[in-house]
Amino acid sequence: MIKYIFFVGRILIDEENFYSYIDSRLIYLLNQFGAKIDYRNYFAIKDDIIKNRKLSNGSVEELVTQICMVLMPKGYEKMILRYILPSIEFAKKHLLYPYDDTMATIEKLAKNFRIGIIGSESEYSKILKTYGIGRYINCCVLSYKENNEPDREIFGLILNMLAIKSHETLLVGDRLDLHIHLANALGTISIRFYKTIFNLQEATNQNEVPKLTINKLNELANTDYMMDQI
């Protein structure tokens, strides 16, 4: 019987407009610095970085840096990152907001389960609080390292502190190499949310195969599997 559902905080936030804006700004800056890159080649490089797991913490700053390192001479990534940081800050303040079904999904699930949030982005926590979702959150799990998400040891300790067993826990995330692998390694039920930039990832071993995959958050609240857990 499921008692706790943990969401990676980022998957509750619609990032589509955020990344569209950052992509356009970065392409402009890259060309200003002499890269001569078009949209098709830019996205081919970006997709390769995501698909082939060249990101560790998955932050937009890390993604920008990795793209620049592919296209520009060594050292340019620091200059371009410095130029684009104001655009990133603007986008975080104005282009991030919960999905249309986030509030209704969390509200429905909170009637039968306790809800936890995993993540390191303070902006996302502020957004959830601003939209009133924070009142349904019972626990927040952050890493002790800046911009990193909790690892197996930390998450296992959290479960012990909450006095819940791994098989009583469900973890919803978008990265196969982090969230799904973590959940399966701990014996926690793993759910993959597919509607993020990390949908390019493909499982490389059995520990990266999720129990369920959903494309919209409200699918989680309405699946037969979840109804059986109530």
Explain how this protein is built.
- The protein has 230 residues and is of the alpha/beta class.
- The chain has two domains: 144 residues, 3-Layer(aba) Sandwich (Rossmann fold); 79 residues.
- It contains ten helices and eight strands.
- It has a six-stranded parallel sheet. A two-stranded antiparallel ribbon has the order 2-3.
- β4, α6 and β5 form a beta-alpha-beta unit.
- α2 crosses α3.
- It is globular and about 55 Å long.
- It starts with a strand and ends with a helix.
SS-derived structural category? alpha/beta
At CATH level 3, the topology of the largest domain is Rossmann fold
Tally of structural domains:
2
Are there runs of 5+ residues with pLDDT below 50, and where? none
Instruction: Estimate percent helicity.
Output: 40-55%
The average pLDDT score comes to 90
Strand order of the largest sheet: 5-4-1-6-7-8
**Which radius of gyration do the C-alpha atoms yield?**
18 Å
**Major beta-sheet overview:** 6 strands, parallel
- Determine the strand fraction and express it as a percent band: 5-15%
Brief digest:
With 230 residues, the protein is α/β, with parallel strands linked by helices. The protein has helices at residues 16-32, 39-51, 60-71, 76-94, 102-109, 122-130, 152-161, 176-186, 217-222, 224-229, and strands spanning 4-8, 13-14, 97-98, 114-118, 139-141, 169-173, 189-193, 212-214. Helix content is 48%, strand content 13%.
